[in-house]
Amino acid sequence: MAPSSSRPLRHHLYLLLIFIVSISGLLTSIPVSAADELPELLGGDGLHREILRDETVLRLKELGKISDGEGYLERTFLSPASIRATAVIVSWMKDAGLTTWVDQMGNIHGRFEPANSTKEALLMGSHMDTVIDAGMYDGSLGIICAISALKVLKVTGKLQRLTRPVEVIAFSDEEGVRFQTTFLGSAAVAGTLPESILQVSDKSGTTVQDVLKTNSFEATAAAISQARYNPESVGSYVEIHMEQGPVLEALRYPLGVVKGIAGQTRLKVIVDGSQGHAGTVPMKLRRDPMVAAAELVVTLEHLCKEPNKLLNYDEECGCFTEESLAGLVCTVGELLTWPSASNVIPGQVNFTVDIRAMDDKVRETIVTSFSRLVLQRCDERLVECRVEHKHSAPATPSDPELTSQLKRAARSAVSAMPGRAGTTSTAADAPVLMSGAGHDAMAMAKLTKMGMVFVRCRGGVSHSPEESVMDDDVWAAGLALVKFIEQAAVSSELLLLPDAELDAAVAEL
């Protein structure tokens, strides 16, 4: 920042303000002799590039190299790479001035507890595990951004002025790769992890209990329950996460706030027909489950692209709006045939259906309507069909107050960035998005109110080594988190005001 001609006067005014504040008993952590360093203690330009961008990106790259795979990133629940990553994350938490520990499900905690504080804690974090052949941002971005934000508070002297406890949690498992069950880490903290989880096994027959014991955890139901937080001790949970979608990139805006996480229904459709020889059964006499399944897949696509054209009036109640239908997505991700031979008309075909929507009524109506259409189409093709319900989870709305606070923080951060963090959007506010993917915030919402911030990623690519987040967008996310914490948990004493507000306060003296 270039010096101005008014700098000597401004400096003397700072000295005057320090003297007044110290006399009133408000200034306790910065001696008057540190007056020359006051602008730096206030954060310099307030953007903290060295910590929130440069160091954070370096740490993302460092964590991205800790892998169980050779030449690709894989870090699953309590694997050797996960244990190595734990030591690194603990060191970063300590560097930010946090007290650290690892709970009985392998979650890493870093916490700052203000003296004599009786207020509920602000929790932040994300997951440290990855999918197979992963990118370096999914999960890790939320952990490291939160640590970096608290480090900024430490170096600016604001950590000691927190009015409530703050804590970063690196959850041990969210992806569910090893044991095919998601949210092992966050569900333990939220208190929703069932005791039966200990007996769930991976493909090799190793159970969750075995893995815990191998890594010197107690591996009992009582021990796991110790990871559970008392809801009365927690005020909120906030998570930074890469978007994993293309919306922010299309809007040319680096950050978005999440209004909620979509509800999800998983179905399995089984179609039985007549197995036969591919060369001898005439077309008109076939009961081909493959053709019926293909028609059902296309029917699902039409239903979810243009739901009002296929829904019955009784099903839609005439009440679905464009807003309630926004974000509805349907996917067939797996299709299996029997006997799966090139010269055989299949005897059976089954396929999976994944239906997600922010509006639970919309999702339930789509499930009902699709089930009706399955039976109708199958009757027309003289094949037998059944629909099995495999999983259902309601939508998880973000807390409106938290969302508003995060929206203000995101707008403030982006507005302060040099070149507006690569945005050419004319939007005054950060976009509000729905999350179609599940996140730890979904599990934590059963413990406390939650809010999320999405960070723009290139092409919407995730769960791939090609996933990419611009360095300046990482910076913007960290800065938004700093501003949010300052709103939510830092004392509002005059000394801690940003430079512009401090100048205004000085002018009023």
TrEMBL record:
GO terms for molecular function: allantoate deiminase activity; metal ion binding. GO terms for biological process: purine nucleobase metabolic process. One of its GO terms (cellular component) is endoplasmic reticulum. Its cofactor is Mn(2+). It is found in: Endoplasmic reticulum. InterPro entries: Amidase_Cbmase, ArgE/DapE_CS, Bact_exopeptidase_dim_dom, Peptidase_M20, Peptidase_M20_dimer. It holds the Pfam family M20_dimer. Residues 263-374 form the Peptidase M20 dimerisation domain. Its main location: endoplasmic reticulum. Its EC number is 3.5.3.9. Homodimer. Belongs to the peptidase M20A family. This is allantoate deiminase.
